[in-house]
Design goal:
This protein is α/β, with parallel strands linked by helices. It is built from 9 helices and 5 strands; from the N terminus they run H-E-E-H-E-H-H-E-E-H-H-H-H-H. It starts with 8 loop residues before the first helix and ends in an 11-residue tail after the last helix.
Length: 216
């Protein structure tokens, strides 16, 4: 099946009705057991097309890295924002994801006239916004935001792996893979694990083990 990249259709339509700076925003790391949630926001330059933009999950790591460099070099503005593990546990992952997106948008300079969001509406933004279901696959600005966020977060998790290689963060980036769950069963939770985010599969993996999954 031929992969279809994200398009500029929505951004172009908004520019035709008077919006000048059209931003896309997306988050990564929402479904992880460990690490921060990270959001990216991007205002693409309509005169500098970037071929190959697509949902970051559909791209290889080298391709994502190449595109992230191209986005940062050619975009009118880009920003990333993080919400920490501690704040995720304090306010819950949904609110943390929205807060990361809000921070990323407000870090753009110039600020956008309108924001395109992957599926959600972001609270407490002063500018117009529109949620687009599957926006990271359909809209080039949202795809670009997902790429810069994913590359940024992957590098954070690589740093975590270098500091503590027991969990294999450089391979699974904090997601609940069998390797990750087995490492938690063996070593317990680390300081970067989300204490409030424990899928049933974690307890299934640890069945028969006497250790407390909540202890570091």
């Amino acid at each position: 099946m031929r992969r279809t990249g994200a398009r500029r259709t929505m951004e172009n339509a908004l520019r035709r009705v008077g919006f000048v700076h059209v931003a896309g925003v997306d988050e990564v790391g929402r479904g992880c057991l460990a690490g921060p949630v990270v959001a990216g926001a991007v205002i693409l330059d309509p005169s500098r097309h970037i071929p190959g933009l697509a949902d970051s999950k559909l791209l290889s790591a080298p391709r994502r890295a190449d595109l992230a460099v191209r986005i940062r070099e050619t975009a009118l503005a880009w920003a990333v924002a993080e919400v920490s593990v501690e704040d995720i546990d304090r306010i819950n992952i949904r609110r943390a994801s929205l807060e990361a997106m809000r921070r990323a948008v407000l870090a753009l300079s110039p600020l956008p006239d309108v924001v395109l969001v992957d599926a959600f509406q972001v609270p407490d933004l002063m500018m117009a916004q529109r949620g687009i279901v599957h926006g990271d696959r359909l809209c080039s600005a949202i795809a670009a935001a997902s790429i810069v966020a994913k590359v940024h977060r992957d590098r954070l998790m690589d740093d975590c792996h270098r500091r503590d290689p027991r969990y294999g963060y450089e391979r699974h980036r904090g997601y609940a893979t069998p390797e990750h769950l087995a490492a938690v069963a063996r070593f317990g939770y680390s300081p970067i694990h989300r204490r409030t985010f424990r899928p049933p599969s974690l307890f299934d993996t640890m069945a028969g083990d006497d250790s407390d999954p909540g202890q570091s």
